[in-house]
Structure formats: C-alpha cells, structure tokens
Amino acid sequence: VPGPTPGDMARAFRSVRRDPLTFLGQVSEHYGDRVSFPVPGAPALLLNHPDDVRHVLQVSARSWGKKTIQYGALARVTGQGLLASAEPSWIEHRRMAAPAFHHQRLEAVSDQVRAAADGAIAAGVPHLVPGTSRLVDVAALTHRIGLDAVGRALFSADLSGHAQRLLDATSDAAELVVRLGRSVVPTARWAPTPTNVRLRITRRRLDAITAELVADRRARGRAGGSAAHGDDLLGLLLDSGLDDAAIRDELVTMVIAGHETVAGALTWTLMLLAEHPKAQERARAELAAMPAPVSMLDHRDRLPWTRAVIDEALRLYPPAWAISRRSTAPDVLGDLAVPEGTLAIISPWVVHRREDLWPEPLAFRPERFLDPGAGRTGYLPFGLGPRLCIGREFAIGEMAVALDRLLATHRVTLPTGWRRPRPEAQVAVHPEGGMPLLLTRLRADLRG
Ligand code: HEM
After folding, report:
1. Model confidence at 380: pLDDT above 90
2. Does residue 448 form part of some domain?
3. Which of 389, 390, 396, 398 to mutate to test the pocket of ligand 1 (most atoms within 8 A of CB)?
4. Cα–Cα distance between 440 and 438 in angstroms, integer?
5. Second label for 126, Cα 20 to 30 Å away, from 380, 390, 396, 408?
6. Which domain holds residue 202?
7. Is residue 16 part of a domain?
8. pTM surpassing 0.90?
C-alpha cells in the first residue's frame, strides 16, 4: 500500500498537528483509496474507499475493535462509557441506554430542546429591535444550545444546579481528550505532566458532580415513594443497577459525544445558509408552514428541504472527522490481507469529498439528498454498522428544532469582508476563532 515515507512524515509533522484535515485530504489525493503510514509494527492505514469503510465498520465489525490512541485518550475521561467501551459490556450498555433515544422519548423531549434553543437565542441576541442586526458568534450560541439540550433531555436536570457544572467540566475534559489524542509520545499516566494534572483535576470534578446528581435523583425517588427513577437517561441508568462509576462514565460520555458534535454541525449549517440565501428562505418557508412547533421527529417526513440542508451540511462538515479501529484478528480488505493489530483510520471528511461519489464535492447542494436513496454510498457522518451513533436521531431532531427557532425569528447573513473560518479538527470540527455572522431580527416572528 503506497504512502508517505518517514522523511515525508517528519517534514509534514507541523502541518499534521496544526491541520490534520488538510493533511488527510492531501495524502488521499496523492496516494488514493488506501494510504499506509510509516509506523513500527502492524500497518496503519487510512481507508478512503467506501467498500473498505463498510468492511471495517459493518461487515467485519467483530474483528475490528476500539483499542486505538483516539479511543484510549477518550477512555481516560469517559472510562468504559458506551463510545469507548468494548464487548461484552458495550452491548449490555447499548441496550440499556437505547430507550432514552426511542422515538416516543424524542417526541416527549421536543419541548425541552425548544426551550434550550430559545434560552440560548435570548441570551446570545438579547433585546434586538425588529429590523436591526447584530454580529453574533454563532459558534458560541450553538455550543450553548448543544449543552443545554443534552442536559435537559438526558438528565431532566435544572441546568442552574449540578448539571451546568457537569457540562462545564465536560467541556474542559473534551479539550484534554484532543490534547491526549495528539500527543505523539505517550507519557506515563502517573507522570505529573500539565495535561495529566489537569486531567486528574477534571476527573475529580466530574466524579463529584455526577455523584451529587445521582444522589439527588435517588433522594427524589425516595421522597416520591417510587421505585423507578424516571424515563430519561439518568433514570434508566439508575434503574439498571449499574454501579455509580459506570453511571458516571455513561453520563460523561453522552455529554462529550452529544454537545460539541451538534454545536459544530449547527454552526456550519448556519454559515452555509448565510452563504446561500435562497436555501435559507426555502427552509424558513418550510418550517413556518408547519401547523405546530417543530418536534424532534418532524425532520423524518415533514421537512424534506430542512432535512436535506442538514444532511448536506453534515456531508461538507462532518463533526466526527475521524473514526479509528484496530483489527483483533487477521482480515482481508478486498484484495489486501492485513495482520492482527492493523490500525484503520476512516475519515468521513475525506470520504464525503470524493469526486466519484459526490460530483462537485465542495459545492453546497442540498438537492443531492432530496432524491431518496441517491448518493448514500460513502456517507457516514454518524458512522456505520453496530457502533452507529446512538444519538443520531436526537442530533438531527435537535438541529431541526434549533433551526426552526432561529430562522423563525432571525435572518442570517454574512458580514462585510466575509472569509470562511478555517475548519479546526477538535473533538468535532469547529471554526477557528468562532463564526461571526450577522443576525437580523425579523419584523414579525413567523411562529408565535
Ligand atoms: C457514536 C457522530 C451526536 C452519542 C458516534 C459515531 C459517530 C458519531 C461518527 C461512531 C463512532 C465510531 O464508530 O467509532 C455524531 C455526530 C453527531 C452526534 C456527527 C451530531 C451531529 C450525538 C449525540 C449523542 C451521541 C447527540 C448523545 C446524546 C454517541 C454515543 C456513541 C456515538 C454514545 C457510541 C455508540 C456505540 O458505540 O454504541 N457518534 N454523533 N452522539 N455517539 Fe454520536
């Protein structure tokens, strides 16, 4: 398998760390469907062809585990939570958490997600007189929506109390995960490096907050005389009989996996809509024509254009820009035999920009997604196979609800001297330096 030499890698070292997205794009363009990186031991492959991607994540998923640097770094914060965990505990936990994401439950939390969006908009663009505009960092606005929606929907918690502290501590943790994932020389966990020290402090904060959150809910259950703890995620976890450490791991996992990703996706969606006023008007008209406030499930069959906008934004700016696996047994990828221990890196960012799958790949064209079934090969913003994102429907539903609230009250346009911010590969893909867009208060809310 072709790929850069150790000398190439040494020369590219700085750009790999500063801008992994561009680096992955360049090596893919240069070397093609499979790129081999020069590492000692078992091969490390970047797999760009949809057949290889499907093989690793879906067809042969049982032979490809998560023992990678990416998930090792995550596990230092989330422990054995759903995202980083391996069989056999993974399947049990997945089954247990699933009802928190069932359709009925998503419908029921629509009001909370709407309230999260309204609260963030009111705080981010306060007192804007109809017809006037303000420059707003949309990245900060969507971050707040993401945090608040996860907290309200999954813990039914009052965010002014414990949950807000949990969410804040988790943001710090997410930053540390990125740092650990990028460290080239793994340091011993006990070594008092600045990152290790911060990690230890952050973990202690997370432990303390989740312990309080759990104790509160247990006390409320006892006071109410009920054996069950409620049907949000926290209630399910408590009813499942998991110990407190496992409950903590799941809570932290959901906050990390569920807020930065949605925030990033919404931010880029708003930028694309500001760049494409006709697409924005069409979404606004479609949302305004809904007889009742948009719910978390309406995107499934009642909002085709808004859904296509979301799908296309997730194609161009997939928040989860890299997915990694390591083979647990020898395997064959098409015509290529790989040994046990092979590292597979799959980048939705790269696959979504393949010209053979997506004509004019860099163009924002939601129409691609209006034709059912078209262009679905090589589309994996939420992963594929058994480890597909459990929050997929939640995320798309939340995006639709947030877009409804924003577009019903504001028009989004580009400020003068506009230049697209550089996409930065963090836990999710974020705009470097924020996303300043112009928000204009509409003269009349399109929805009451
Ligand atoms: C898994 C992306 C939102 C929770 C994943 C995976 C991807 C992904 C690509 C698969 C990782 C792999 O195979 O290695 C996204 C994107 C989101 C999003 C792009 C938003 C636009 C959410 C939300 C939640 C969530 C809102 C929870 C509230 C999880 C969990 C897993 C996961 C727990 C692990 C599932 C398992 O292994 O069983 N996500 N996600 N995600 N996601 Fe999401």
Report:
1. yes
2. no
3. 389
4. 6
5. 396
6. 39-441
7. no
8. yes
